Amino acid sequence: MNFIMDGGPVFMVPLLALLIVIIILFAKGIKKNTEKTHKLINSLALFSFVFGVLGFIIGLLGALNAISINSKTFSPEILASGLKIGLLSPTFGMVIFLIGKLFSIILTWKK
To answer: What confidence score (pLDDT) does residue 76 get?
Structure first.
């Protein structure tokens, strides 16, 4: 769970909460498969992906701002490290999106 704190708790904790909600909706959908549950899972999965990308963009803008302020002490290692950390939230959002889509496919198949 260290990657959640590395990726920035401002974006990673809400993404984790969205994953938990999607899992709960899937469990509810197995018992009572409704169109509302199906649409909620799809919407939350897509929101997770977009929210993760937003986290990356905001982090990248902050990093570029810091680089422009301290351009004399800039090193490629710092940029590479920042990009690695910055890519955690969109990657986690994408994993949640894929899980949500898989759950949606399973619920559609079970209908």
So the answer is: 78
